[in-house]
Write a structure and sequence with these properties.
Layout (H helix, E strand, L loop, with lengths): L1 H20 L1 H11 L1 H31 L11 E5 L11 E4 L12 E4 L2 E9 L4 E5 L6 E6 L4 E6 L5 E6 L9 E4 L9 E10 L5 E7 L9 E5 L3
Length: 226
């Protein structure tokens, strides 16, 4: 009987000592002696674990839906991710996650899958604003087809190429490409989808078709400044 009392007393003394002088071991001992307390601690931690899991899932989704498909820069382009435009989904401009700190300068070309989709108009340390070909203010000299007919590419909701020679032999599907100073020469803009005579009957106008959906673009390449 005395041995049992001595053992219990020793255990109590050790527990008090651990709680007072070794808090970490004291907490583990209390958790072991009180299973219900341990369960409560687990429930308290579950929201934190759930938040961490959600954060990891978000990072994985961002990688799978964009970063893993970043095209190769080829040594002359800077890859950048496009920030979401939801719920506005304007097509006339996009904001990307690279800026002057990455070597981006105003006036440089923005490219998607080898197509010219716009040019940089504003640069911040870690972001850049790109005016796309769907902006009404986007205008650049361009050439059309294998015969390289000169024209003026005019952006907007329905971009066109105007001021083409009236006798130009254009066909649907002819490639339209950039021929503007300050932009890489020959970058395709789109293809001819229809032709018409200009309002003054002096030129041919061409409607432009694009092989991509502007709202679906998540990554772009930006040309390095000379």
């Amino acid at each position: 009987m005395r041995l049992r009392r001595w053992a219990i007393g020793t255990l109590i003394a050790l527990l008090v000592f651990a709680i007072l002088f070794l808090p970490c071991y004291g907490w583990k001992l209390r958790s072991w002696l009180s299973p219900q307390s341990g369960a409560a601690g687990g429930d308290a931690d579950s929201p934190n674990l759930a938040a961490e899991n959600d954060a990891l899932k978000a990072q994985i989704a961002a990688y799978e839906n964009g970063a893993s498909r970043l095209p190769s820069s080829g040594g002359h382009y800077i890859p950048a991710m496009v920030y979401s435009r939801y719920p506005l989904n304007f097509k006339n401009e996009i904001l990307v996650d690279a800026g002057s700190a990455n070597g981006i300068a105003t006036g440089t070309a923005a490219v998607f899958q080898g197509m010219l989709i716009g040019r940089v108009t504003k640069v911040f340390p870690h972001e850049a604003l790109i005016q796309t070909v769907f902006d009404s203010g986007f205008e650049i000299p361009a050439r059309v087809g294998t015969s390289s007919y000169d024209g003026l590419f005019e952006g907007g909701s329905y971009p066109t190429v105007g001021s083409i020679a009236k006798n130009a032999a254009l066909r649907d599907g002819d490639v339209i490409y950039a021929a503007a100073p300050g932009l890489p020469y020959g970058l395709p803009l789109g293809t001819v989808s229809a032709t018409s005579t200009s309002g003054d009957s002096l030129f041919t106008d061409a409607a432009v078709a694009f092989p991509y959906d502007m709202n679906g673009i998540q990554t772009v390449l930006i040309a390095q400044s000379p």
